[in-house]
Specification:
Number of strands: 0
Shape: elongated
Oligomer: single chain
CATH architecture of the largest domain: Orthogonal Bundle
Number of helices: 9
Order of helices and strands: HHHHHHHHH
CATH class of the largest domain: Mainly Alpha
Distance between the termini: 58 Å
Length: 222
């Protein structure tokens, strides 16, 4: 039987004391508490996990992959892998970092598959598609700059691309980057030292990008 829609007045009229008692209270204020609720199969825990982390994970995937229609499928894959790996999570307080690492791993795999598909001509020539309709509108000039940036990033190997995106777009620290990519901090710094001047040099010579790209930091924070 179809459930009747909630009255519109409920949105503006304060709940009575009786009504408040039936509203579920979110008990899992910390990541560790939420992990325990997920392991115990608490009914509302999945929804809380999605509400807290899906927006930031979607942003990481979109910035890693570009304005690509694969992002929503990739986000679903992140959560599928998370639930498979949940019993192996040793530090429940690091839930956010655990999810972030899975997102980076998913992005890396998709970049690799995308490159293989292009080699074998199984898709188009690899130009970045238009952003999906639900993306916040931006100016045509900014859209052009984003497309041109990802054209440059598409010429990089997958690891260099992720290093650049996670450092200069996501703003991760060197130690965070190293943990996500399972590299030593020294390796991350070497990759950044190679890829950062390359990307910024090409951006400065691109009319669509030049005015959007600030000079890179010369010193790398750890």
């Amino acid at each position: 039987m179809q459930r009747a829609a909630a009255p519109r007045l409920a949105k503006v009229v304060p709940l009575t004391v009786a009504a408040r008692k039936v509203v579920p209270v979110v008990r899992w204020q910390t990541p560790a508490e939420l992990v325990q609720a997920l392991l115990a199969a608490e009914p509302e825990a999945h929804g809380v996990l999605w509400d807290r982390y899906s927006t930031s994970l979607r942003a990481v995937l979109r910035r890693s992959l570009g304005p690509d229609t694969e992002v929503e499928d990739a986000l679903q894959e992140v959560f599928i892998r998370f639930f498979r790996a949940l019993p192996t999570l040793r530090e429940p307080a690091a839930l956010g970092s655990f999810l972030f690492g899975i997102a980076v791993h998913v992005a890396r795999g998709l970049l690799r598959k995308r490159r293989i598909r292009r080699w074998f001509r199984l898709t188009d020539d690899g130009e970045i598609p238009e952003p999906p309709d639900d993306v916040d509108p931006v100016s045509e000039q900014a859209q052009a700059a984003v497309r041109r940036l990802y054209v440059i990033l598409d010429d990089l190997d997958d690891e260099s691309r992720l290093v650049f995106v996670l450092r200069h777009i996501e703003g991760l620290e060197i130690t965070e980057l190293a943990a996500c990519l399972k590299m030593s901090p020294a390796t991350v710094k070497r990759r950044l030292a190679r890829v950062t001047p390359l990307v910024f040099a090409r951006a400065r010579n691109d009319a669509d990008l030049a005015s959007f790209m600030a000079a890179p930091d010369q010193g790398e924070r750890s």
